[in-house]
Task: inverse folding
């Protein structure tokens, strides 16, 4: 995009703000204009778009772009049709919020429009990849921790929209010296390591092994059922 064209767009925005009395609207319209300019500059930076099938459409921080397949920007990780930078933003939001809330916050804070389902698929996808890669770590590298640890495990059934009732497993592991008193009749646990899993016990225990296999002294506090 030529410099003269960029300046023209900025000048158009400046002209539209003459007589503006709202600081909120002033900055909001500037942000919208800057987002549109960013998309145009990024799109044109990708070069000439082929007229044949040697191109694909992907989502970016600035919206949908058409990218030549020969361009490095076309190489999106793990088959997701999103730019690597946008994937990072989506997964960051998805791991910290309910997927619907993450979708709303991405649109509000970053002007990124992704559905809750897209956030879910991407976050779960990277979570599964991380779980697989962590299994390849050599347990010999981890030094055996001789401190006393306590572990708690429980489970229940959760009503989900997709799969009706589904098992939920949760564990909590903490060091003995993390159990502290705040008053004569009140205690608290300063730091804990949680492991959660939707599904049966076998995948859950495989996850839990990553936390407990290098702990030499474990005391489990659990209930029982027939």
Result:
């Amino acid at each position: 995009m030529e410099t003269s064209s960029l300046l023209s767009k900025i000048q158009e925005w400046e002209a539209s703000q003459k007589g503006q009395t709202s600081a909120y609207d002033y900055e909001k319209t500037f942000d919208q204009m800057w987002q549109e300019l960013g998309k145009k500059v990024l799109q044109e930076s990708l070069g000439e778009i082929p007229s044949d099938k040697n191109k694909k459409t992907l989502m970016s921080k600035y919206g949908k772009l058409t990218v030549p397949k020969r361009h490095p920007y076309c190489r999106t990780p793990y088959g997701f049709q999103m730019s690597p930078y946008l994937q990072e933003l989506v997964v960051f939001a998805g791991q910290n919020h309910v997927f619907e809330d993450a979708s709303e916050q991405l649109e509000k804070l970053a002007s990124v429009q992704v559905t809750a389902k897209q956030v879910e698929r991407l976050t779960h996808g990277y979570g599964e990849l991380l779980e697989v890669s962590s299994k390849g770590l050599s347990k010999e590298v981890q030094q055996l921790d001789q401190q006393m640890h306590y572990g708690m495990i429980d489970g229940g059934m959760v009503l989900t929209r997709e799969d009706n009732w589904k098992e939920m497993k949760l564990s909590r592991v903490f060091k003995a010296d993390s159990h502290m008193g705040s008053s004569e009749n009140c205690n608290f646990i300063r730091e804990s390591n949680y492991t959660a899993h939707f599904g049966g016990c076998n995948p859950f225990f495989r996850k839990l092994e990553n936390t407990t296999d290098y702990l030499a002294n474990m005391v489990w506090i659990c209930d029982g059922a027939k």
Notes: The chain has a mean pLDDT of 88. The beta strands are 55-60, 63-68, 145-160, 164-175, 179-183, 186-189, 193-198, 215-221.
